[in-house]
Specification:
Helices cover 28% and strands 26% of the residues. The protein is α+β, with helices and mostly antiparallel strands and 333 residues long.
Amino acid sequence: MSLKEIKQQLLDLLAQGDWVSGQRVAESTGCTRTYIWKAITSLRKDGFNIEAVQNCGYRLGSGADIISESLVRSYLVPELKDISIVLRDSVGSTNDMGKLFAESGCAEWTVIIAREQTAGRGRNDHTFFSPADTGLYMSIVLRPAIAAKDAVLLTAAAAVAVAKSLEKVCKIKTSIKWVNDVYTGGKKVCGILAESSLLPGKTCLEYVVLGIGINLLPPKDGFPAEIRDIAASAMTQENKELRCKVAGEVLNTLKDYCECLSYREYYNDYKKRCFFLKKPVEFERGGVVYRGIAERINKDFELVVRLEDGKTMTLNSGEISVKSAETQNPENP
């Protein structure tokens, strides 16, 4: 068993909160005390506060925000308790891994979570800054029985699930920018990327990999200069089990929505969080820049814009730029 695997097993044991004896760790991992100590030392270098007391064993110190399979699972509703959860220290993209799993026939609700992404991305090949241990980088493999044109329903449902989860766990106000970004305090805190594949010869989806990247804590060296003015974190200081709590809450809420996806029970929650409605917006189509007022979001989660010439245009995807100074600090109504 590799050192990485031993470290994850240790975190799963320590996540239970009690003192764990060296003997129990040895029996659970099948490793020698020397190798266990090597793993403990490596975890400490990674930033985990692990206490060691003779005759007591090991315990996770206060303030530690770890990602642990057992801890994530402890926050899940019974219907999700047996899902497959794959944890990785570092990946290029959790969505890329999710697509590989989906193509190989993995079960629905397989979840991939990484401590960091080295090639995280959003829509239109935009990069998503994903430094280690400050965000939740998660992809979920879904197999919904819906047409490809309805895939936006999953993106919208995920946006509401993230917004409500951050409001509950982090006690912050959130808003949504069409189609797939969650904001707090006027800055982006979460991006969502849905990537899908069609059944051969069909218009129905074979699978959707739903990627969710949330900035939970400020990066140690700050956000890069190019996104410093537009990116935010949900919390300002470390909170024990934060990422596991948020992951569990998002998955639970999304599960509820997916049970009746076509009923769009999340529509009103989505609409009321859209901070740009009735405000000037700008977007590009076919190389032409259009300006107008964002009038409404319809129940297919399309954006209806009234253009400067009085005509309306209905957008089903793409980027919009909000042009009103009033939206610099959008808040949930």
